[in-house]
């Protein structure tokens, strides 16, 4: 976790979700890259972040890409955020006794179905061996997680519109990573709404 | 006699190797403190929970203390060291008053605290101190210290168990970090927020810390030191939070023009 | 000196408060101590009630896991309106009794001859906490955890305080040490808060309720704490003074144990 550094946060808004990460990749205290995005899309309604050991970020991302593609072909439909969460969880638990050093965060907008015409925005997070939590407000992970908890608890409020959610998640991430030596060096934010995904790179302190 | 010389446990432990057992003179008693300076006031706050490990020792133990008519000290870390440090500090301040027929000024108290902490450089007081009050020029001030006396004047500081949760929030809300004013608007200046805003931030900081940190909770005590000439009406008229009470803290000495108030209220107990 | 002009230094420093008191130079030979507890007493409990405070401690002093001394009194009166209940090393407890005894005798003599006030429970507690803190700072701790209960006649209120080998101090309407802090304290708090409310400002439990509660807690501790004894005493401190009960036992039920594998004869 502390080897490469990095943090991810996700938040629920009104008919939208947001997920954001810093862009630092380090080797202990030495910064190596400032374009290490830790958030990846599954489809245009579902993103996930993988903060933790960088080598495991790649392994897990490819593993999940493979499994989501298999799911798509077998089921002939897109995976829901909830199902994807369980897919990530069982992928992590397969390595129960030699875990990936990753604490994933999932954020998605479930598509309406006949059974559930008005699905709620969904976020979830897991520990390194796949124990799931599905918060109603925000999820944090990575080396700045305690700072993210503090700021998010102070800034977040229910039913934020996409632009307000963007401001809240950006301020939360920036102020938390500015107090963390292992996170920072830029940030990227995705706000997922029903008709589009807003992705913005943030200008941040580079020290 | 040989029997007594052995430790009772080793009588039953066949494989007992001589275990090096050293007495640990320190403990950690949780809790969080915080202070914010305004233009003509200073706010110093702390929660009232005292814990050790996963046990709550008491739901009411004070860790914010009035030192003089214009200085309040918050202390956090090892409670026994904290109590004894404050006791010794108060004694020094009393002697100073007897010798000089006046109370020690805030920045002198800050230097005294550094001297006392550094005096124990090689057996430190395991205590994080935050000193708040009114400077001789009438401005609100906050000084923060590390356990061995390194110190600095600041506009705000959080310390203790939930420091990591509260400090970045204060960076954002007090120092306006990562914020910029609207084009053409006044620039942000830290340390100039109105008292009502500051009190709101203090209460929010502690409710947030209580929500996410197990060692924070039970109660909150907020000391407010007001510079001379500032009307306390603005404070007394404040719409207090639920269950909050306010009282004026009597002056330590003859009483200058500064006034100290204590705002206390409940926090969640779980 | 009277009749003589004050020197400039004395005028500046009438109370010799400068320079700041410093630690004395380290001794040439390092003194080694840091014992560890040998003969020990287990948890003690304390509880405030309407009109006073109660303390409870069992009569056992253990030597490791051996129930070595089974008639030891761990409740010790200090003056007319104060009791301490002591857990931890019994040798240090005896030293404490001796040390406090001499102070108390001196103070009592003074309080008889002039209008010198006698020591309150809060005074004694404060003195104890200073002893404990100074000894821990020397690296030679007094290996005890002590509850002090008392009645302050001037303030007409009860006193209950905790101090341990680190010099850590605190007060609360219910207190418990060691295993008691994990097992009995939740029961004490639940019962106390049910009566007095979360802020403790309501009606306090009566003496009868308090004693019943302590009896229950001592029983639960006897069931679960392997270093406890079903023979204990309760000290009650009120305006009338100190009353330390005779040793008593809780009624216990072990019938359930017969059905447990590993208990009793191993013939099943």
Automatic annotation (TrEMBL), chain A:
Keywords: Cytoplasm, Nucleus, Proteasome
Subcellular location: Cytoplasm; Nucleus
SUPFAM superfamilies given in the database record: N-terminal nucleophile aminohydrolases (Ntn hydrolases)
Example GO BP: proteasome-mediated ubiquitin-dependent protein catabolic process
GO cellular component entries: cytoplasm; nucleus; proteasome core complex, beta-subunit complex
UniProt xrefs under InterPro entries: Ntn_hydrolases_N, Proteasome_beta_3, Proteasome_bsu_CS, Proteasome_sua/b, Proteasome_suB-type
Domain of life of the native organism: Eukaryota
Location (main, coarse): cytoplasm
Quaternary structure and interacting proteins, as annotated: Component of the proteasome complex. The 26S proteasome consists of a 20S proteasome core and two 19S regulatory subunits. The 20S proteasome core is composed of 28 subunits that are arranged in four stacked rings, resulting in a barrel-shaped structure. The two end rings are each formed by seven alpha subunits, and the two central rings are each formed by seven beta subunits. The catalytic chamber with the active sites is on the inside of the barrel.
Functional summary from the UniProt entry: Component of the proteasome, a multicatalytic proteinase complex which is characterized by its ability to cleave peptides with Arg, Phe, Tyr, Leu, and Glu adjacent to the leaving group at neutral or slightly basic pH. The proteasome has an ATP-dependent proteolytic activity.
UniProt record similarity statement: Belongs to the peptidase T1B family.
Protein name (record): Proteasome subunit beta
Organism: Tremella mesenterica
Taxonomic placement: Eukaryota, Fungi, Dikarya, Basidiomycota, Agaricomycotina
TrEMBL record, chain B:
Subunit architecture: The 26S proteasome consists of a 20S proteasome core and two 19S regulatory subunits. The 20S proteasome core is composed of 28 subunits that are arranged in four stacked rings, resulting in a barrel-shaped structure. The two end rings are each formed by seven alpha subunits, and the two central rings are each formed by seven beta subunits. The catalytic chamber with the active sites is on the inside of the barrel. Component of the proteasome complex.
GO BP term, example: proteolysis involved in protein catabolic process
Similarity remark: Belongs to the peptidase T1B family.
Record's subcellular location: Cytoplasm; Nucleus
GO terms for cellular component: cytoplasm; nucleus; proteasome core complex, beta-subunit complex
SUPFAM superfamilies hit by this protein: N-terminal nucleophile aminohydrolases (Ntn hydrolases)
Gene3D superfamilies recorded: Glutamine Phosphoribosylpyrophosphate, subunit 1, domain 1
Protein keywords: Cytoplasm, Nucleus, Proteasome
InterPro entries assigned to the protein according to its UniProt record, in alphabetical order: Ntn_hydrolases_N, Proteasome_bsu_CS, Proteasome_sua/b, Proteasome_suB-type
Region (Disordered): 247-270
PANTHER family linked: METALLOPROTEASE TLDD (PTHR32194), PROTEASOME SUBUNIT BETA TYPE-1 (PTHR32194:SF2)
Function summary: Component of the proteasome, a multicatalytic proteinase complex which is characterized by its ability to cleave peptides with Arg, Phe, Tyr, Leu, and Glu adjacent to the leaving group at neutral or slightly basic pH. The proteasome has an ATP-dependent proteolytic activity.
Protein name per Swiss-Prot or TrEMBL: Proteasome subunit beta
Lineage: Eukaryota, Fungi, Dikarya, Basidiomycota, Agaricomycotina
Pfam families membership: Proteasome (PF00227)
Keyword Cytoplasm recorded: yes
TrEMBL record, chain C:
GO biological process: proteolysis involved in protein catabolic process
Any one Gene Ontology cellular component term annotated for this protein: proteasome core complex, beta-subunit complex
Name of the protein this chain belongs to: Proteasome subunit beta
Stored InterPro entries: Ntn_hydrolases_N, Proteasome_beta4, Proteasome_bsu_CS, Proteasome_sua/b, Proteasome_suB-type
UniProt KW Cytoplasm keyword: yes
Alphabetical keyword list: Cytoplasm, Nucleus, Proteasome
Coiled-coil region(s): none
Subcellular location: Cytoplasm; Nucleus
Biological function: Non-catalytic component of the proteasome.
Similarity annotation: Belongs to the peptidase T1B family.
């Amino acid at each position: 976790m502390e080897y490469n550094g990095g943090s991810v946060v996700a938040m629920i808004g009104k008919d939208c979700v947001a997920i954001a990460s810093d862009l630092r990749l380090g080797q202990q205290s030495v910064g190596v890259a400032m374009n290490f995005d830790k958030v990846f899309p599954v489809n245009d309604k579902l993103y996930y972040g993988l903060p933790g050991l960088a080598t495991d970020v790649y392994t897990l991302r490819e593993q999940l890409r493979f499994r989501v593609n298999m799911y798509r072909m077998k089921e002939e439909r897109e995976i829901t955020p909830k199902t994807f969460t369980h897919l990530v969880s069982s992928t992590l638990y397969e390595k129960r006794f030699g875990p990936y050093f990753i604490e994933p965060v999932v954020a998605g907008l479930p598509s309406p179905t006949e059974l559930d015409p008005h699905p709620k925005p969904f976020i979830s997070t897991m520990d390194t061996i796949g124990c799931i939590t599905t918060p109603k407000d925000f999820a944090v992970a990575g080396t700045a997680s305690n700072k993210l908890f503090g700021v998010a608890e102070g800034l977040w409020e229910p039913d934020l519109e996409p632009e307000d959610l963007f401001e809240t998640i950006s301020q939360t991430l920036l102020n938390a990573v500015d107090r963390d030596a292992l996170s920072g060096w830029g940030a990227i934010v995705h706000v997922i709404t029903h008709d589009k995904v807003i992705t913005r790179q943030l200008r941040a302190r580079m020290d | 006699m040989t029997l007594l010389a052995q430790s009772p446990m080793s009588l039953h432990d066949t494989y007992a190797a001589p275990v090096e057992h050293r007495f640990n003179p320190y403990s950690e008693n949780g809790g969080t403190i915080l202070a914010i300076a305004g233009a003509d006031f200073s706010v110093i706050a702390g929660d009232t929970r005292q814990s050790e490990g996963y046990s709550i020792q008491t739901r009411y133990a004070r860790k914010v203390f009035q030192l003089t008519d214009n200085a309040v000290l918050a202390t956090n870390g090892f409670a026994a060291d904290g109590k004894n440090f404050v006791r010794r500090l108060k004694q020094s301040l009393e002697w100073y008053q007897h010798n000089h027929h006046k109370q020690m000024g805030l920045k002198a108290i800050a230097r005294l605290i550094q001297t006392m902490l550094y005096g124990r450089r090689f057996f430190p007081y395991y205590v994080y101190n935050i000193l708040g009050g009114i400077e001789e020029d009438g401005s609100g001030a906050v000084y923060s210290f590390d356990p061995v006396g390194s110190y600095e004047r600041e506009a705000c500081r959080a310390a203790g168990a939930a420091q990591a949760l509260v400090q970045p929030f204060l960076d954002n809300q007090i120092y306006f970090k990562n914020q910029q004013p609207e084009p053409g608007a006044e620039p942000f200046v830290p340390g100039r927020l109105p008292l009502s805003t500051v009190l709101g931030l203090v209460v929010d900081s502690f409710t947030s810390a209580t929500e996410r940190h197990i060692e924070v909770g039970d109660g909150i005590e907020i000391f407010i030191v007001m510079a001379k000439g500032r009307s306390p009406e603005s404070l007394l008229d404040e719409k207090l939070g639920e269950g909050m009470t306010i009282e004026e803290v009597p002056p330590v000495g003859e009483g200058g023009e500064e006034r100290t108030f204590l705002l206390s209220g409940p926090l969640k107990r779980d | 000196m009277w009749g003589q002009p004050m020197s400039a230094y004395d005028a500046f420093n009438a109370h010799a408060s400068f320079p700041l008191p410093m630690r004395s130079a380290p001794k040439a030979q390092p003194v080694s101590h840091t014992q560890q507890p040998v003969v020990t007493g287990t948890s003690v409990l304390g509880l405030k009630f309407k009109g006073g405070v109660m303390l409870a401690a069992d009569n056992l002093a253990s030597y490791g896991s051996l129930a070595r001394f089974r008639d030891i009194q761990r409740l010790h009166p200090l003056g007319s309106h104060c009791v301490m209940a002591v857990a931890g090393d019994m040798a240090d407890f005896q030293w404490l009794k001796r040390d406090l005894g001499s102070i108390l005798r001196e103070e009592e003599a003074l309080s008889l001859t002039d209008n010198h006030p006698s020591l309150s429970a809060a005074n004694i507690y404060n003195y104890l906490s200073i002893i404990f803190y100074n000894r821990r700072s020397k690296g030679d701790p007094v290996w005890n955890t002590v509850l002090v209960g008392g009645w302050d006649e001037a303030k007409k209120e009860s006193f209950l305080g905790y101090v341990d080998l680190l010099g850590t101090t605190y007060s609360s309407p219910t207190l418990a040490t060691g295993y008691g802090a994990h097992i009995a304290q939740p029961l004490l708090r639940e019962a106390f808060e049910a009566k007095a409310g979360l802020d403790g400002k309501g009606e306090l439990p009566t003496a009868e309720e308090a004693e019943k509660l302590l009896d229950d807690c001592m029983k639960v501790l006897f069931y679960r704490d392997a270093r406890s004894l079903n023979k204990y005493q309760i000290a009650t401190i009120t305006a009338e003074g100190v009353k330390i009960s005779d040793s008593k036992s809780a009624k216990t039920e072990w019938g359930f144990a017969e059905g447990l594998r590993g208990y009793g004869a191993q013939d099943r």
